[in-house]
Every structure is written in C-alpha cells, then in structure tokens.
Amino acid sequence: MSLLKQLASETAIYGLSSILSRLVNWIILTPYLTRIFRQGEYGVVNDLYTWIALLLVLFTYRMETAFFRYGRQPQEMDRAFATAALSLLSSTLVFSIILLCFSQPIAALLHYTEHPEYVRWFVGIVAMDAIAAIPFARLRLENRPLHFALIKALGIGINIIFLFFLLEICPRLSEAYAGSPFIDWYRTNDKILYVFVANFIASFATVLLLWPQYRRLRVRAVASLFDAQLLRQMILYALPLVLSALAAVVNSLIGIPMLRFLADDATAGIYSAAAKLAVLMNLFTQAFNYAAEPFFFRHADRSDARAIYAQVAQAFALVGSLVFLGIMLYIDVIQYLLGKDFREGLGILPILLFANLLLGLYYSVSIWFKLSDKTTIGGYIAMGGAIITLLVNYLFITHPAVGYYAPAWAALVCYGAMLSACYVLGQRYFPVQYPVWRIALYMLLALAFYALDATLLPGLLQHPVWLYVGKTLLLLLYVAWLFHMERGESGLLRKKI
Description:
The protein is built from 22 helices and no strands. The chain has helices at residues 3-36, 39-60, 63-70, 74-101, 103-109, 116-141, 145-176, 191-214, 219-225, 228-253, 255-262, 265-276, 279-298, 305-329, 331-334, 349-365, 367-371, 375-396, 406-429, 436-455, 457-460, 464-486.
C-alpha cells in the first residue's frame, strides 16, 4: 500500500469514530436538543463546552504531541509514555482540586452564580478526558486506529444512552414516583445539568476502557521508565504548542461566549446550532489531523518525506473541496436537522465550511515547525490568529448588519491569515514544494459551482425534483473534472508515493 493510501485508510478509520460521534450529535442530539431547549438554554450548553475545550488544553498541555515527538522510535516509546502519563496524572489531580475548591467564584465569573455544579461537572469531564489523552495518543502512534475508533464509539454510545435516560426516562420516573428516595435526587427544572452528567459518565467509562494501558505503570516500572530530564524536554517542546492550542480553541469556539456577553444567550444558541451543520467538514479535518500528525512523525526520516507532505496537502484540499460543495448543494435538506427556531442562522454555514477547509490545510502545512523543533513560531502564528478572531468579534458582533455572522467571518479571516503566515515561514525554515496553484484551483472551482447552484439553478429549475437533479449533476461534473485532472502526469492518481 502506498503511503498516501495508508494515510487515507487511517484517516477513514479515525474518521469513523469522529463520524459516529458527530453524526450521532448531528442526526440525533442536535435535532433533539434544538427542540427540547430554548435558544438561550442551547446557547448556555455550547458556552460551557467552550470553557471545557479551553480547560482541556491547559490540563493536557499538549503532552500528546510531545509524546509523538519523543516516543516515535519503538525503543523510546515506553519511556516517553511513562513520563508523559505520570506527568498528566499528577497535574490533573492538582488542577482538579484547585478548580473544585474555587467552583463558586468561577461560576460567578462565568455568570452562572446560581449553578456552581455546572463548573464541578465540567471539571470532572476535563479531568477524565485529560487522563485519557496519552493512552489515546499511544494508540495513534502505534498505528492502531481500529482500537482507537472502538473505544471512541463505545464512549459515544454511553453518552447517548445516559443522556436520553436522564432527559426522557427520569422525568417520567420522577412524576410516577414523586417523593420516593429512589428518584428524589432528580431535578426536573434543570435539563442543562444532565447534558454534563451524561458526558461525565461517558468520559469516566472511556478512562476505564483505556486503563489497561495505565496498568503498565506499576511502581517498579515507573521508577525505571520515568525520566525527569525527558519530561523537561517534553514540556519545553510542548509549551509553545499550548499557546497554539489555546489560540485554536479561541479561534474556533470563542464566538459563542462573546455572543453571550456582547449580544444574548439566544443569539449564541442560533449561531452554535447553525455551526453544528459544519460537522462533516469539521470531522474530516479532525480525522485528518488525528491520522496525519503521527503519520508525519513516523515518516520524518525518509528521504522523500517532503514530497509526501506536499501530496498529503494536495489530497486534503481535493477531498475537502468536494466535501464543501457536497454540503452546500444539499443544505436546504440538511437544515431540517435543526429545530425551526434555529434555522435562521444557516447563512453562516458556507463561511464556516470554507474556514474549516483552510484550517485543515493549516494542519498539513504547519507540520514543519513540529518536525524542526520550532514550535515557538507556531505559537506566535496561533496567537496572531487569536488576536484577529477576538478583534473581529469584538468590533462586529454588535454591528447590526453583521451580528452572529461575525464569528464565522472571524474564523475565515483568522485561518486564512494563519495558513498564509505558516506557508511563507515554512518555505524559509523547512521548504516543501506544495502544489499551491492546483490546491487553489480545487477550492476556487468548488466555490464557482456553489455560486452556480445558489444563483443560477433556482431560476432555471423551479420544480424541486429537477432542482435536485441539477444539483446532483453539478456535483458529478465537479467529480468528473477532479478525476480528469488527477489522471494527468502530475495528478495524484499517477504518483507512486
């Protein structure tokens, strides 16, 4: 199997776990939650998940990427695993105790003064996810995507089961057995809380499924494998990546809390619900990143490594452009996955989809500063992107002509700037001959086909059946063009790597 096909296979398997989680969220949870929650309540749920994402970066401090860097050689993997895992276990315990002790003031700071329990539960979620980070990273580095996907899928299933139990079955039990100590603990007026309770149970179950990897860390084994000097190197390597990761969360999610503070909960709910429909591009980008990061490290010593990196970026752009066009051609069907009160925000979708396509390209191009140990430069690029995101949101959320479109435009401008800066600096420090014009052509043609669908087809084909026939023909025409282009001498189908 060629390396490009191997990466595609691993991306597909990692994507399976992402697809399951996101599609379950998309097909089951998003329609369900946007119908049982009001706009403001849904905004609160997504606001809290933004803080969970930020905390998770601090709890893991990018130790999984440091593990890829220092554990990529088989003879070094156990030492790097023991060092990283013990570090995360210790720091997670300390961070969790501190945050739980200050849960009330933290809740007040986030404008949830009456609900400090929200903070306690999301600290628990973050702690469980942090403990799972290094075992999951080891599965990726050992090239075991099926095992990775299976554990992810089981965690997703547990989350769904307990969510429906807590939001559907428990209210009925509470009504039927009112006053019984069996169900007296249930709070019927706080549905938001049980979203996080179900998530915590699923995260705890995931840690139990991964615990066999921690059983390797017996006291005697830790004494022989833990390396304080290696830990220092790993932390110094990862610290700039923490800035990058924090900036990435800011760039992708900060729009929701800023909409809460600068507008209202309902506006945040409308934006976050519409943003859920960007799930297919997001999961493709996430699956690619899951597979690509350890893949790049595993093959870093090959003589043709840079040619491989160029082909990977080209392949991502090709498939990503196709995903973008496919979603946008059928968005008027996909919209029914949202409750009717949330569909007014659909205009942000093409902006967010294209922004996430640029983000995926950034993941591919940014590998140079991880391989060349120049992670500080990556931190500066990401912080610059975060500043752009914050400025655009702050300046335009309150503008009546922009409103909740501001976070989408902020993401597009931010990821475009980060991709450009990373490419230019990469050509200086770690030059890779990316097929820039071919990549740009994929994306521009996808935009052109989307523009045809949005402006020309509705006027020519007014009957719904013929309209969807026209949309499908547009998609097939784009696929045929891609196939024809990649069959040429410089196309991906002719390359042997």
